[in-house]
Structure formats: C-alpha cells, structure tokens
Write a structure and sequence with these properties.
4-stranded mixed beta sheet, single chain, alpha/beta
C-alpha cells in the first residue's frame, strides 16, 4: 500500500532543505493607514510596515474605491450569482469592460477572475483558434503565460530576453504566411527592466505576426491615463492584444484582455477558463471601475510612486546595498542564497516590524534569490530611514555581500 503522506512529507522536506519553503504572513491591513498592517504571526498582534505589496499606488485604500464598493454591496448584495453566461454579467462588469477598452484604445475588453487566468485562458485559446500557430515567447515571461502556451499544445519558440536580434532570427526562419504570435511583457517584475515595445511591433509588422503584451506591472502606473508602458510610449494602436490586472496598480483583483472586438468575442466564446468560472463579485468590479476612472484623470499617484521608487534606490545605493539597476518602479535587492534570503526577511519582521517576502526559486532562477521592495506614495522618509537602518544592520550580521 502506498504511503501517500510520506511522499508528501518528502516533497515538502526537499523544498525546506533548499530554503525555499514558503510561509504565509498573517496580516490585516489598516484602512486609511497603508502601508501599516497588524501582524498576527507572533505571541501578540503588533503593528508592522509592509514593503512588498503589489498595491503599488495604495488604491486599495482610496476613498472613491471604498465608497463605490459599499454602494455596490448596498445595491446588489454580495456575489455575482453565476458565470458570465448564466446571470453573472452585471452592469458593473459591462461598464468596466468599456472603461478598460477605452483605457487601451481597443474595441473591446474581457474580464477574468485573475491576471493569471487571463493569460492562461487567452494564450491557450489563441493557440487553438489559429491552426498550428507558433508562439514566440520571451524567455522571462510569467508562469501564467508559459502555462497558457503549454496548454495550447501548439508549436512554440523561446527567444532570449529582450533580445531583438534573436527574435528576428527566429522570425526569419518561419514562413511569413504562417500564423505567429509574439508574447512578451512590458515591465518584468523581478528585474524591473522594460521591453522595447515599439521595436518588437516593428518586427511583428515586418514578419506578419500578432503581438500579445502583458502589462500587469504597468497598468495604472505608466502612461498619460494609466494605460501602461504602451500608453507611455504612444504605441497602444500597434499592440494587438493587451493583458492587464486589476490587482496591482488598480488595487483590486481580477484580470482582463483588451483587443479587437473579434478577438475578444472569440476568446469569450471558446476559452474554458472564462466560460466555466463564476464572475467577479459586483462590489469588486465596482471598486475596480472607480479605480480605473480615477487613475485615468489623476497623475498624483503615479508621480509620487515614481519619486518614492527613485528615492529608495538612491538610499540603497548610498548604503552600498546591492540594489539592481532598473528603469522601472521595481526595486530588487540581490542576495543570491535562499537560506540567507529567508533569514533576512525573518529578522526584518521579528526585529524591526518590517514585512518583506523572500523571492526564491521558481519565481527567480536559483542563485539569484532576492528581496523585492515596492515603495509607494504612502511610504514616508521615516519609513525609508527605518528600512535602510534595518537592512544595513542585517547585512552586517549575516555577512552579506555589499555593492561594489
């Protein structure tokens, strides 16, 4: 008789030995006081400062967003009541899809329960709708994109990260009339580098390929109206399919695609990950709608976010801490060892009331373990002083390598 528990324990022991066993932090954010939260993981609850949230602009705390959510609950109740096909399409869903299509200058948009599902469902469906379609995927694409391409079961090619020469070489090897999709991200969230979207679109035009752009770490944060890097660079009209999230810059949850009416209708009609999933609760959609509308008009949050990210990078460099260079808001600090990475983040929480999550394999390659700091508009200079003091002391205590 197989010992199922023994197999499971052995698998867990493996990742514990490698130093990449993940522990959830039991926290409760404080409304109106972000990045403050209450931590419940110790003997007594205590106040901490969160430095790793993807609620980049603190829109999850914005009064307009909370008001819209309360109004939706009072108007409609809690859940959506079904899939989008069966009673789960509320007026909030329809309004938000129109706003997102407008945000990205597209004919239509489609909501999903998460950004992961948006990528997985769309890419796998596209691979099946376009017979024998070749998907050319950037080597550092997110796991959700990789999974969607894999589930599509069509031919694929991996091109070196942001390497346009390698991309063009591979495009040249494919018949110009063969269906093909170039799949890539705008901001790569673990390194913080940015794709050359316009030049990738040039290659797509030259070799008759569709473009699929993941903007999850850019929507709300960049562009004149928060439409992402493609908005910032003035190339929205050149990208065929834009995928985004409501869970980061917009401070809510859910994902979406924006594209032509025909593309959105085809995915809506064929993607199991959309068809068979209960739709997002109306209150969440209402909050996201308020957030998108606010960030289309307001630049204050984006400007403050960029200033805070630049200031933190400056302070880290002054302290000779190994912050990785990046042109975006992402602030990765390299450690290079999973055990030390976990020891550092545990000490930050236990000794300094600072919450930072270790970033280990498989999120990043082995040997490139790091912490990933996410400064936002609500992090004060005093918060930064406390963080730098803590990191400087722990870098010495753990004998971690300093920046040259």
């Amino acid at each position: 008789m197989p010992d199922y528990d023994a197999v499971l324990e052995s698998a867990l022991d493996t990742i514990k030995t490698e130093g990449r066993y993940r522990v959830f932090a039991d926290i409760r954010r404080k409304r109106g006081e972000f990045p403050r939260a209450t931590y419940y993981g110790g003997d007594e609850p205590r106040e901490i400062t969160v430095w790793c949230s993807n609620d980049y602009l603190a829109m999850g705390q914005h009064p307009d967003v909370l008001k819209a959510m309360h109004e939706a609950i009072d108007t409609t109740g809690s859940g959506s009541g079904g899939t989008r096909n069966i009673a789960g399409t509320t007026h909030y869903h329809v309004q938000l899809e129109k706003e997102l299509a407008d945000l990205h200058a597209k004919e239509a948009a489609l909501l999903f329960t998460s950004g992961y599902i948006a990528n997985d469902a769309t890419l796998s469906t596209m691979a099946k709708l376009f017979p024998d379609c070749i998907i050319l995927s950037d080597a550092k694409n997110h796991a959700s994109m990789i999974e969607g391409i894999r589930r599509g079961r069509g031919p694929k090619r991996i091109w070196r990260h942001n390497d346009l020469e390698d991309l063009e070489r591979q495009l040249q090897e494919i018949d110009p009339d063969h269906p093909k999709i170039i799949a890539f991200e705008s901001v790569y969230s673990m390194d913080g580098d940015i794709a050359p979207i316009a030049r990738i679109c040039d290659l797509a035009d030259k070799y008759n390929a569709l473009t699929y752009l993941d903007e999850v770490h850019a929507v709300g944060l960049y562009g004149n109206r928060g439409g992402g890097i493609a908005d910032r660079d003035g190339v929205l009209d050149r990208v065929d399919i834009i995928e985004g999230t409501l869970a980061k810059g917009f401070g809510m949850m859910g994902g979406y695609i924006a594209a032509s009416k025909a593309m959105v209708d085809a995915v809506r009609s064929y993607a199991p990950g959309f068809i068979f999933t209960t739709s997002i609760a109306p209150a969440i959609v209402a909050g996201a709608l308020a957030s998108v509308r606010h960030l289309k008009k307001s630049h204050l949050e984006r400007e403050a976010h960029q200033e805070r990210a630049a200031e933190l990078k400056r302070r880290l460099r002054e302290a000779s801490l190994p912050v990785m260079d990046s042109p975006s808001h992402v602030v990765p600090v390299m450690i290079g060892d999973p055990v030390l990475c976990k020891q550092l983040t545990d000490a930050l929480m236990d000794e300094y009331d600072i919450y930072v999550q270790p970033i280990n394999y498989p999120t990043v390659a082995k040997g490139t373990e790091r912490i990933r700091l996410t400064p936002g508009p609500k992090h004060s200079d005093a918060d930064m002083d406390h963080l730098i003091t803590a990191l400087d002391a722990l870098w010495r205590a753990l004998a971690l390598e300093r920046a040259a």
